[in-house]
TrEMBL record:
Entry GO MF terms: folic acid binding; glutamate formimidoyltransferase activity
Domain Formiminotransferase N-terminal subdomain, chain residue ranges per copy: 3-180
Domain Formiminotransferase C-terminal subdomain: 181-293
EC number: 2.1.2.5
Protein name per Swiss-Prot or TrEMBL: glutamate formimidoyltransferase
Annotated organism of origin: Propionigenium maris DSM 9537
Keyword Cytoplasm annotated: yes
GO terms for biological process, alphabetical: L-histidine metabolic process
Length: 296
């Protein structure tokens, strides 16, 4: 059977849609590659792209797209609410069908090497592809962001896995890795007080004593505060649990939750428990969903 890999590259451009179109063109009308979504966000100044397909074809498209991003994005003038260190900021590979995590690690290493060889972009390997324990966590890799990377790379501990200890002058640094599917999830609060958002984010994330599989922060966007997070294991930390906990924490500060959003794509299974919880269903599972059987 044909192997299928998913890739979710994040680009540090979400305002100039002409540039975004040039960047994602590498994924369109390409044999073996299917572009599933492209979601630019002006406040974050970031675009999240989701593609699936043949591992070799997807890897080639990513490398080509990275070259375009390095040409059209100038990180020296970049600003936005999302943490970032490079024009193509992060590139995770995810096993979908007949793929092992080890195979995704191999793809990550190959792409990382080519990003430097072809485009001169230094690369850190992260998550399952990490070569050192401190590089497993993307937040630690990205710490310092673009502006702090020139100094960070002088530290022998942070020498890139591929490339020299100096950033690409316009495109910065990229993290390439392998991981299981995650849910990128944001919750809106009816406040403009960023400190409240930060306190709530600290309460729910693992490093603050919250959920084991939550990485969270807070940003100001569209005149409100958003608690932004990655649910790294949706099977062990359900979306509804996080949503209800944020609602509870918000009440402490006289703040209400007004909505939430999924960034990029998420597995259908991630929503099953939430549907069961909010609808009061019993005996419910993904086997009750018609589309599950249509995909068999």
């Amino acid at each position: 059977m044909a192997k299928i890999v998913q890739c979710v590259p994040n680009y540090s451009e979400g305002r100039d849609l002409e540039k975004v179109e040039k960047i994602v063109a590498s994924y369109k009308n390409r044999e073996g590659v299917k572009l599933l979504s492209c979601e630019p966000d002006a406040d974050y100044n970031r675009t999240v792209v989701t593609v699936i397909g043949d591992p070799v074809a997807v890897a080639e498209a990513v490398v080509e797209s990275a070259g375009v991003a390095a040409e059209v994005i100038d990180m020296t003038t970049h600003s936005g609410e999302h943490s970032r260190m490079g024009a193509i900021d992060v590139v995770p590979f995810i096993p979908i069908k007949d793929m092992t995590m080890d195979e995704c690690v191999d793809i990550a290493k190959k792409v990382g090497e080519e990003l430097f060889q072809k485009h001169g972009i230094p690369v850190f390997l992260y998550e399952e592809a990490a070569t050192r324990p401190e590089r497993t966590n993307l937040a630690k890799v990205r710490k310092g962001q673009f502006e702090g990377m020139p100094e960070k790379l002088k530290d022998p501990q942070w020498h890139p896995d591929f490339g020299r200890d100096e950033i690409h002058p316009r495109a910065g640094v990229t993290a390439v890795g392998a991981r299981m599917p995650l849910v990128a999830y944001n919750i809106d609060l009816d406040t403009s007080n960023l400190e409240i958002g930060k306190k709530i984010a600290a309460a729910i994330r693992h490093s603050g004593g919250g959920f084991r599989y939550i990485k969270a922060g807070a940003v100001e966007t569209k005149g409100i505060i958003q608690v932004t997070m990655n649910i790294t294991n949706y099977k062990k930390t359900s979306i509804y649990r996080v949503f209800e906990t944020v609602k509870m924490e918000a009440k402490r500060y006289g703040v209400h939750v007004t909505g939430s959003e999924i960034v990029g794509l998420a597995p259908m299974e991630a929503f099953v428990e939430s549907a069961e919880y909010y609808l009061g269903l019993y005996g419910f599972s993904k086997d009750k969903v018609l589309e599950t059987h249509l995909m068999d």
